[in-house]
Amino acid sequence: MPSFGDEHAGARIQRERKLAHLTQRGLASRIPYSYSLLNQVECGARSASDEFLVAVAGALGIDVTVLLGGEVSSDILVGLVRPIQAALSLYDLEPVGAVTRTAEQLAVAADDVCQQVRATNLRKAAVALPGIIGDLTALAVSAPTTQTWRALASSYRTASDIALKLGGNHDLATVALDRMGWAAERASDPCLGAIRQYKRALVYKQIGESTLGRRLIESGHTMLDGQTTREALAVRGQLHLGLSAVAARAEGQHAVTTHIAAARDIAKRIGGEAGEVHWLSFGLRNVALHEMGASLAMRHYDTALRQARKIRLPPSTLTSRRARFLVDRAVAEMETGRADAALKHLVEARRAAPEQTRYHPGTRSAITGLVHMARRTPDTLGSMAAWVGV
After folding, report:
1. Which residue from 242, 235, 238, 191 is spatially nearest to 216, judged by alpha carbons?
2. CA nearest to 383, candidates 353, 354, 362, 352
3. In contact, 120 and 352? CB cutoff 8 Å
4. What is the phi/psi pair of residue 149, to 5°?
5. Which segments of 275-360 does DSSP mark as H helices, in order?
6. Which of 83, 189, 311, 382 has a Cα-to-Cα distance from 76 of 20 to 30 A?
7. What's the rounded Cα separation, in Å, for the pair 378 and 189?
């Protein structure tokens, strides 16, 4: 089976066009290019310009990275990650050069790049982040304020998220979270410190260190002792969700039920969704998503599927969260023998967030299972399998 990356862009356009149930003429009518050019690109007789690919992606409602191959090459990955790694090393160095942005402007920029990650615009976020970290580090050293330290801590958290989503770089994520702790301590912000422990626990959970993950989250709870604000309640609720995820891997149903119930109680107390609190999106819907995720981790697939069918994500749902839900549901569908539904959800996840979906471990698990189940590999499944390297 040829690798997904070996296809030319025209073949990818053809596949995505067919998935959208469009003829060549139907697609041509939606872009500012001729049917003849589209036909030649699809058959490989003409190459596709960047502008052409952007227009086609827009007409199909997909991310242009799908048409580029949906993956980050090793060279591009190094080019994105290395500047972030260098920026993380500035924390104990004297600043060089003047900072042209104010603390307020940098705080807005830090929040924007965090939002870009949640919208799965990972490359855009990765390009902007090193400069933000560099400027915030210089300001924090030369003219420290609580606002600057908070924005810097947030930027370090974003660095960790990007490291994990672009290829699962756990070592770089760990360094970024260490820097986050350094900045959160100087901001005297227990909520940021607790979030840092939560994020550290998730990194260790991914590599199988559930016991350490539980200890980290429990230390986050301790940091919030005496804190009664809505922000602190939302963070504490998220910590319970983190403990439910850890418990699903190591402790079992009783512990999961206990922490899910605690999180649900907090969500009710704060009045539904608290999406504005540190981009945690904590609320009743997030509790339901984590409950389903815990069922998957415990291999209670019938239960997970029942839970998934009850979840309704509004249009405002963050792209990263929607794509994660689609992959999780695909795993539940696959494990309960619903191959067509599983493939459908994987395709939807890929169209919504190609980079995140490609690196999500559930994607490979679901596609591997579908390939083993299939007597004959459909074209869509074959291209998905090649895309993730199965």
Report:
1. 242
2. 354
3. yes
4. -65, -40
5. 284-297, 301-310, 319-335, 339-352, 354-359
6. 382
7. 52
| CATH code 1.20.1260.10 for 1-70 | no
Mean pLDDT, each 10-residue run in order, the chain (390 residues): 54 86 93 91 84 82 67 61 92 87 95 88 88 95 93 95 81 94 94 93 76 91 93 94 89 91 94 77 92 94 96 88 94 94 94 83 89 78 77
- Quick one: which of 254, 207, 262, 255 has its CA closest to 238? 262
Boundaries of every domain in the chain: 1-70, 73-188, 304-390
Beta strands in 134-178 (DSSP E): none
Instruction: Please compute, for residue 39, the number of CA atoms within 13 A of its CA located in the half-sphere on the CB side.
Output: 7
Q: Would you state the structure tokens that stand for residue 357, as one six-digit string?
A: 């979906």
DSSP string, 263-299: HHHHHHHHTS-BTTSTT--BSHHHHHHHHHHHHHHTT
Q: CB-based burial of residue 96 (10 Å sphere; 0-12 exposed, 13-18 middle, 19+ buried)?
A: exposed
> Quick one: which of 298, 305, 355 has its CA closest to 325?
305
- Residue 77: predicted pLDDT: 65
Angle at 213 between CA 208 and CA 214, to 5 degrees: 125
Q: What are phi and psi of 102, to 5 degrees?
A: -80, 170
| Residue 158 CA, distance from chain mean position | 11
For residue 274, list its beta bridge partners.
282
DSSP annotation of 4 reads: G
| C-alpha–C-alpha distance, residues 77 and 71, integer Å | 10
Q: Which two tokens stand for residue 182?
A: 């350094």
- Between the CA atoms of 299, 282, 194 and 108, what dihedral angle is there, to the nearest 10 degrees? 130
Measure the CA–CA gap between 13 and 371, rounded to whole angstroms: 23
Matching fold, domains 1-70 and 304-390:
no
User: What is d(CA 217, CA 236) in angstroms, rounded to the nearest whole number?
Assistant: 10
